From TrEMBL:
<feature type="domain" description="Hcy-binding">
    <location>
        <begin position="1"/>
        <end position="286"/>
    </location>
</feature>
<dbReference type="Pfam" id="PF02574">
    <property type="entry name" value="S-methyl_trans"/>
</dbReference>
<keyword id="KW-0862">Zinc</keyword>
<dbReference type="InterPro" id="IPR051486">
    <property type="entry name" value="Hcy_S-methyltransferase"/>
</dbReference>
<keyword id="KW-0489">Methyltransferase</keyword>
<dbReference type="GO" id="GO:0033528">
    <property type="term" value="P:S-methylmethionine cycle"/>
</dbReference>
<keyword id="KW-0479">Metal-binding</keyword>
<dbReference type="InterPro" id="IPR003726">
    <property type="entry name" value="HCY_dom"/>
</dbReference>
<dbReference type="GO" id="GO:0032259">
    <property type="term" value="P:methylation"/>
</dbReference>
<dbReference type="GO" id="GO:0008898">
    <property type="term" value="F:S-adenosylmethionine-homocysteine S-methyltransferase activity"/>
</dbReference>
<feature type="binding site">
    <location>
        <position position="209"/>
    </location>
    <ligand>
        <name>Zn(2+)</name>
    </ligand>
</feature>
<dbReference type="InterPro" id="IPR017226">
    <property type="entry name" value="BHMT-like"/>
</dbReference>
<feature type="binding site">
    <location>
        <position position="271"/>
    </location>
    <ligand>
        <name>Zn(2+)</name>
    </ligand>
</feature>
<keyword id="KW-0808">Transferase</keyword>
<dbReference type="InterPro" id="IPR036589">
    <property type="entry name" value="HCY_dom_sf"/>
</dbReference>
<dbReference type="GO" id="GO:0009086">
    <property type="term" value="P:methionine biosynthetic process"/>
</dbReference>
<dbReference type="GO" id="GO:0008270">
    <property type="term" value="F:zinc ion binding"/>
</dbReference>
Length: 287
C-alpha cells in the first residue's frame, strides 16, 4: 500500500497566519469569520506534499454552533462548508483526498476531556451526540471521515455503531493515547482497535495527538488493519506560564516518520504544533 501523507496542525498554521483561536469553537470559529483562511491552510499543506486535507470540522458540532446562537440549518451549512473548502483546495492543487474531521465529544466540552475520556455521557449518549454532525458530513461526500483523538472505549463503540448505520461511509479511526499501549481512558489500544477489525468501511486504525515517543510501541500493537499515525510535535504545554516548552525540529519529525513507515504505518502526518514544514519533511522521507 502506498504511504499517504496527511496534513499537519490546521489550527497551528491558522495561528501562524494571524488567526485568534481563543474560543470554544477553536478552528471552527473561522468557518464563520474567515473561511478563505482555512482554504489557504489546506492549500499550504497540499503544497508541502500532503495527499490528504483534513477538514476544519474537528470542533464544528451542531451543538456548539447552536450554543453560539445559530440555528440548525446554519450549523449544517457551516459543517458542510468545511468539506467544500478542503475540496476547493484539493482541486486547486490538482488532486488529493478530503477527510472530514470527526472530533471527540470532549472537543465540544472544551475542558480537556478529549485527553482523558472523562465524559458525562454513556455510549448511547455519545452516539446520539455524534449523529447530527456525522450525517451532515456524510451527505457532503468527503472521500472518508477522519475520526480523531478518540480517548475512550465507549466513544469508540459509539463510532462503530454509526459506521454500521452508514454503510456508504469510509473512515479512519484514530485514538489519543497516554502511553505505548493505552487510550487516554486506560483502555488497551488492542481492545479499542478490535472494534474495527474486519470492517471494510475502515481504511485504517491508529493514533493521533499523542507524543511521538509513544508511536513505535503503539504501531506494534496494531496489526489487523492499515495503520494511521499523526502525533503532535512532542512539545509540552506549560499551563502556569501559558507557553510551549521544547521544540520539535521538522527534519527530526520527518526522520521519525520514516521509522513509523518501516514499522508498518501507511498513513502518516502531524497533529498539534506541526506545520507545513513538518509535512514537507514527512513527504520527503516516506515518498
Amino acid at each position: 500500500m502506498k504511504t499517504l501523507v496527511l496534513d499537519g496542525g490546521l489550527a497551528t498554521h491558522l495561528e501562524a497566519l494571524g488567526a485568534d483561536l481563543r474560543d470554544e469553537l477553536w478552528s471552527a470559529r473561522l468557518l464563520l469569520e474567515n473561511p478563505d483562511l482555512i482554504r489557504a491552510v489546506h492549500a499550504a499543506y497540499f503544497a508541502a506534499g500532503a495527499d490528504v486535507a483534513t477538514t476544519a470540522s474537528y470542533q464544528a458540532s451542531v451543538h456548539g454552533f447552536m450554543a453560539r446562537g445559530l440555528d440548525g440549518s446554519e450549523a449544517a451549512r457551516l459543517i458542510t462548508l468545511s468539506v467544500e473548502l478542503a475540496a476547493q483546495a484539493r482541486d486547486e492543487a490538482g488532486g488529493g483526498l478530503v477527510a472530514a474531521s470527526v472530533g471527540p465529544y470532549g472537543a465540544y466540552l472544551a475542558n480537556g476531556a478529549e485527553y482523558t475520556g472523562d465524559y458525562d455521557l454513556d455510549e448511547d449518549g455519545l452516539r446520539a451526540w455524534h449523529e447530527p454532525r456525522w450525517e451532515i458530513l456524510a451527505a457532503a461526500e468527503p472521500d472518508m471521515m477522519a475520526v480523531e483523538t478518540i480517548p475512550s472505549y465507549p466513544e469508540a463503540r459509539a463510532i462503530a455503531r454509526l459506521l454500521k448505520e452508514t454503510p456508504q461511509v469510509k473512515a479512519w479511526v484514530s485514538f489519543s493515547c497516554r502511553d505505548e499501549a493505552h487510550l487516554n481512558d486506560g483502555t488497551p489500544i488492542t481492545e479499542a482497535a478490535a472494534l474495527f477489525s474486519g470492517n471494510p468501511q475502515v481504511v485504517a486504525v491508529g493514533v493521533n495527538c499523542t507524543a511521538p515517543r509513544h508511536i513505535p510501541g503503539l504501531i506494534s500493537r496494531l496489526t489487523e488493519l492499515p495503520v494511521v499515525v499523526y502525533p503532535n510535535s512532542g512539545e509540552t504545554w506549560d499551563a502556569e506560564n501559558r507557553r510551549w516548552l521544547g521544540l520539535s525540529d521538522p527534519m527530526e519529525f520527518g526522520q521519525a516518520a520514516k521509522e513509523w513507515q518501516e514499522l508498518g504505518a501507511s498513513l502518516i502526518g502531524g497533529c498539534c504544533r506541526t506545520t507545513p514544514e513538518h509535512i514537507r519533511h514527512v513527504a520527503a522521507s516516506v515518498g
